């Protein structure tokens, strides 16, 4: 789909208008100038005075016309950037409306293309805006539908029930630990995940670096009396290393980190059932790991094969029962809607199988075609359901979870996600993952250790966010972990020193 947008000179419009176009069309190109043979031309007429008045007129090849108008008062703002933002929203409004009319598709999230919609509602809650006013504002500002506003409110309420001090946790941190190995690589995967077989040398050096990072960061936290809220081991698959290696790693955590007994939650992803053994479960129990994740993704064997997961459906079920028997009482399971070859009948089967296990939490993802994955590179090989069917499956997940006493407690959106839907985490009462809430709502710093681990520094005073990424491949990590650790400690010292001097 080629769209030519006329009437806007500022190049900064290109990206937001492209992102909105992506919500409607699989492949689209937006030009901010006249272009021969485009499918649609949209002329924007913008007037800025005490209010922003904007008109959009869409004209397609068949000379079908659609138009929209929007007016909003200019909010006095100091920075040029803020002013542009207001204009950008106004233009996005009319642009979305004409595209909705033309395609007949309603975008339930309106002009929002960001990843964390619930943050917008939290901002209102923090300012104590009455709910009705906040909802109205979200509707007006972003054209979000009532259905999605209701979902956002439900999630925000739940998060505040689980973490009542969510808005006061900026002086604590959470820790993410990335273990970049997996038994084999899945076709949709863009995580740092390297097939572990035959790489023991590389695993050994990686773990050496990781222990070093944990020690240094732990020392810093102790010196600065900073508490840890949650710890999350992800990757890759953190249970793809041996039981002995896991044992040493958790011992390091207990020795190096401050007050591990007071950490609210420690999660270890055991995503691939083929990595779970009784010995490893013993180690998890020994170190009081509260929460694990065993991920079926689908209960259809052919699908698992097609996406490169070399384990059987039976193995998922078997390992789930094993974990249960050995006392793991907070198990999360991830499902993916829209895997190749899957539609309503396959997803119905997956939900029926889930019912037999009833994990404490369930994360329902919608397949996303990430640019770097094998699946995206060979898109024609993978047949996936259309938008309507994806939406239907999403509704089935909503209905099923509700009927089985699960409540949504976090959500995030992705670019290039099928049907432009969202990923939702559901949980049974009091089994919500606090780490997932922390990562989504960005109320505190998350320190990333290990391969591919992204640190997110949230200024405790201003809330400003900066990012820092550890190297993705084990080789670079092994060569440079000391430098990366020192760089992070420097950022942390600046961040928390400023805070302490203002306190
Ligand atoms: S198990 Fe997860 S991290 Fe590992 S290859 Fe598959 S999707 Fe990637």
From TrEMBL:
<protein>
    <submittedName>
        <fullName>Coproporphyrinogen III oxidase</fullName>
    </submittedName>
</protein>
<dbReference type="InterPro" id="IPR006638">
    <property type="entry name" value="Elp3/MiaA/NifB-like_rSAM"/>
</dbReference>
<dbReference type="GO" id="GO:0051539">
    <property type="term" value="F:4 iron, 4 sulfur cluster binding"/>
</dbReference>
<dbReference type="GO" id="GO:0006779">
    <property type="term" value="P:porphyrin-containing compound biosynthetic process"/>
</dbReference>
<dbReference type="GO" id="GO:0003824">
    <property type="term" value="F:catalytic activity"/>
</dbReference>
<dbReference type="GO" id="GO:0005737">
    <property type="term" value="C:cytoplasm"/>
</dbReference>
<dbReference type="InterPro" id="IPR034505">
    <property type="entry name" value="Coproporphyrinogen-III_oxidase"/>
</dbReference>
<dbReference type="Pfam" id="PF04055">
    <property type="entry name" value="Radical_SAM"/>
</dbReference>
<dbReference type="InterPro" id="IPR058240">
    <property type="entry name" value="rSAM_sf"/>
</dbReference>
<dbReference type="InterPro" id="IPR007197">
    <property type="entry name" value="rSAM"/>
</dbReference>
<feature type="domain" description="Radical SAM core">
    <location>
        <begin position="167"/>
        <end position="403"/>
    </location>
</feature>
<dbReference type="InterPro" id="IPR023404">
    <property type="entry name" value="rSAM_horseshoe"/>
</dbReference>
<dbReference type="InterPro" id="IPR023995">
    <property type="entry name" value="HemZ"/>
</dbReference>
